[in-house]
Structures
1.
Amino acid sequence: MKEKENNKQMLSIPEVNARFMQVLSYYSYSGYKSSQEVEEISQAKISHVKSGRNKPGLDLITALLKKFPEVNARWLIVGEGKMLNTENDHTQSLPSETSDKLILENMRNKGVKDIQDRKILVLTEKVDKFMKELEEFKSSIKN
């Protein structure tokens, strides 16, 4: 019964939340265990992500990827690819700096210094752009 409730809850929250929670579940991490082992992750933040109240922010995504470096960042953020990287495809899961040169330069100007944070921000911006395009496409189909 409890598994059914968990599955129902996962379907009603944003997909990025479900993937975030899937990673924690895969590693048998509860909100409490996460908060004890990773400074940036609190039980309250996990609870808000799990309930769908908040999407995981850059701080949570970064902390999760640092704790579990084998997690595919592209899968976590946009749902593409497999949850875990193999040694061969680890570097392919992140955007290349050359293709995103302008975005990265813009972020450097904003004071973002950590390369992982920049790559996550690039992916987040791409997801936001994709979601806007998807909404426009849905809207055009309805009309």
2.
Amino acid sequence: MQTSKLLRDILQRHSAERIYLRDLISGMKERSFAGLLMICALPEALPLPVAGVSAIIGIPLMIVSLQLLLGFRKPWLPSWIANRSLKRKDVEKLFNKILSILEKYESVIRPRWKFVTHPNAQRLLGLLLLILAFIIALPIPFGNMLPAIIIIIISLGLIEQDGIVIAFGACLSCILFAFVAYALLTLSQFIPKLNSGFFAR
């Protein structure tokens, strides 16, 4: 079943005013890891007007990445997170944005480079995703958008089992890590000079 059809089925099965996070996870079945990562990253990558979503899904983004690194077969969330709910209209906004991405690329994204989707390779991806989640959490103005986009690219590759897309996202993440490391190194050298100049006055 195509992922776009799976997401539509989830919305059809849950017609209540609010949808619980645990229901979204169970509805995505074997794609729950990648699907949850994409849902968590999307509000950070795009200016979606969904009130309160970032506060709810920011922590799961790091938790799910860590579980992928540790080799969990399916994501697990503490009950205080899994039992959180979102308004159905907000979930529809998220899903519609995901569907617009999937439907645009589903015709060209296909299962290939299966070695990249091997469980051992996915554990390495979990490490990359965890670092990306940590960068998102840093208080950097507009610093959450690029790592969130990379998480979406990797998640899309995981959902459709496309190793080329995953490898592309992993390469982008390495470039981002190098840039962040350089920025932090430059900042660490600049602050002592700034302090010495300030106290010299």
